[in-house]
């Protein structure tokens, strides 16, 4: 909401500025924005170009060092390969070492970077050149990492991580290879000072530098760090995990641009460091020149804008001065603008307008005098017509009032008749409703009578059904008694079977082994007899319960038959009552229908009277409306006459005012 208000205030201020201010502001915006944008784009392009050139220089320096390390290591790999092929470890073991020492000495003197050449054997023998490098008496080459790694490499050249030589106290790296006979390892220690010196001599930018790390992030060469120490900084993890790339880091409070590559032979990281301040300093002169060009362009353009705006506003000022004089009525001063552009054409048009105004004012002055005289004559005639119209209007209004009173009386009579008709219609509708209700009541009574007859029939059916059910329950009781007798017979059979099974078991026992099978059968028969006896006991209990329930049901049936007989008597009495009610309702319905017919005849006669009153009322209203129309017409005519009179007076006053206005002009 506040932003909208601020925007509206800014627009309001802009609209209230002078034309000169608006033109100046517009030209400045149109000029400054493109100039600033174009110069800013040019500056950014130049900045990117300088940045790209400096980064390319850093990349080239890193790449040169990488190639130098390749050449440095490759040359010694060839020497160590020759050494491993030319020196049999067995000769050293047999003290036949003259030729071996010559070869070692030759390789050692082949390059200033070779600090020492040597051979270690599987027996623990060791030979080196130059002999000035002494090892401790207990020195065993087989325990040294260079020996162990070379033996595991199966004839491939291995390169150790850089380390400080115990003999020379210099940073060296060992290149080793298993001898051809497989009984020892030939090795060369290379000084890295030539590499580190080269790194120190190369500058990246003015104050940037190159550094070298081994594959374990140990510092080989770095002018800002101690050699042989672990590189510190989280960005070194990124360098260690990557193969090559560029990084923007903040190290020791300074913003640095890093570029790094990985040497394929050694796994070492060559890192170029360039300070961002140097890039900014290289770009600063470009920014200064850009600002100077921008300021000069703005000054020249501002001067040109000033001249253009002045050529526009000066003629406009002359036109404004002439317009002010014309607005005050002074048409005597001519407008003189010498330019031929659009503003000059506007000045010529303004001069033609001034001349035309002089002619118009002269003509209006002559016409205003005639108009004033005519207005006075029209005003006098209008006053006479207004008085006559007022008398006619008064007479017509009195006639209209009489017609209105007559119409109101007729309307009152008509309204009373309408109310009477409404009342009679309500009585007729009520009679019809009562008759309809009586007819419905008669129908309901008929339905009730029929329902009573159906109820009697249904009660009789229930009575018959109850009687049949009682007979069936008696039969069920007899069946239950028969079942009880059958159960007694089954029980006796089970007892006899049990007794026979017992006798059979006794006889089987007497028979001994031959009667065992018979004894088993007798035992099973006995068990079956016992189960039959138990089942018959349960059946007897169920049958006894059924007999009890059957006796209770028979008693309930007898009670139901008595109650059904009573219900039949009550329903028959209700049927007689419904017949009496039906006869009474039929009589009432006939009488109500007669009353309804009489009321409808009265309503029809009253409606005819109401229509007659309405016709009379309509005629009276038409008469009243006619007089009112005539009265309105005369009133309108009177109002028109008054308006004409007022207009004539106004016209006369306007003619006088017009003469006063014309007198203000100076021709």
TrEMBL record:
Residue span(s) of domain Methyl-accepting transducer: 381-617
Record-annotated membrane-spanning stretches: 21-43, 291-309
UniProt GO BP: chemotaxis; response to amino acid; signal transduction
Any single Gene Ontology cellular-component annotation: plasma membrane
Membrane topology: Multi-pass membrane protein
Single GO molecular function: amino acid binding
Pfam families tied to this protein: dCache_1 (PF02743), HAMP (PF00672), MCPsignal (PF00015)
SMART domains: HAMP, MA
UniProt subcellular location: Cell membrane
Protein origin, superkingdom: Bacteria
Gene: mcpA
Domain HAMP as annotated: residue spans: 310-362
Name used for this protein in its record: Methyl-accepting chemotaxis protein McpA
